[in-house]
């Protein structure tokens, strides 16, 4: 019987002097360091909430992906339907690029309108041009979300306008934002663009972080009657890039200030710590039926994490794997995952691989392992 096993690791020397806590008025929030993937803050990060205009990050990703794959070009023209004009255009009273009904707009202008101005008509025009309807496009959005690791988000339209069954999580939105930055660097810069002009209409980027001189890279703002104000933001400063998503704030001013405080804290209150060097043995895991009782596991490269400078909680690391691992095992085979906690927050997960070969044991050794598994397997079942 193979069960989920945990090997505890003591990380020596990684102790702080006093606990440091961060409080936010946001109902849900999630922040990571982009380089290491360290989770710096998490509060109700997997709660499903209405996406509002934050859904437009996913709309843009679908368009970026189509361009990168060669299916679309920036100078492709997209038709402005009456539906797009009425639902998201000048007559809608919502964020718009003022595209004229029955005109055609280049895809590059549509993308800039969506990323800079959060234009609803731009989103609908892209959706109809790529998939024929908002509904069809929303299915593509959800499929793409799953492909890039967004496990708990469902999209019903490209704008984020209220719709039953549509929801996102703060964790998923950070996953999406970091994916966009890493995969589409040429387009990612649009989010920090200060203004956008289309058809002689000048509109400023409304993201308040861009005016704060904190290294902000823009991204998206949202609002819903149910959950209040939300934001997805990023900063690049002091050689680091952080992504944050926050929801459930009471006003535009509170949203801006809470995001600024959290991002500043993320930059200043953490230091990089290398837990394991490249090639260093992370730990050993039990082997069943092999010519040795256990094997060393290692990560593909160095394992580093950002930890709070004054956090009193020690880092806790655990090797989690299905085991005991059955022989034979080839070096390089995926064995399990190194999970690192800072306090109660699961801050990092790193794949682990066999650092050595393990051959089949002698017949009598395998028989003894089998007897041992019968005697101890039930203990793991009830104590892990």
UniProtKB/TrEMBL annotation:
SMART domains: PBP5_C (SM00936). It catalyses: Preferential cleavage: (Ac)2-L-Lys-D-Ala-|-D-Ala. Also transpeptidation of peptidyl-alanyl moieties that are N-acyl substituents of D-alanine. Keywords: Carboxypeptidase, Cell shape, Cell wall biogenesis/degradation, Hydrolase, Peptidoglycan synthesis, Protease, Signal. The keyword DNA-binding does not apply. Residues 1-19 form the signal peptide. Pfam families: PBP5_C, Peptidase_S11. Residues 270-360 form the Peptidase S11 D-Ala-D-Ala carboxypeptidase A C-terminal domain. This is serine-type D-Ala-D-Ala carboxypeptidase. It comes from Nitratireductor indicus C115.
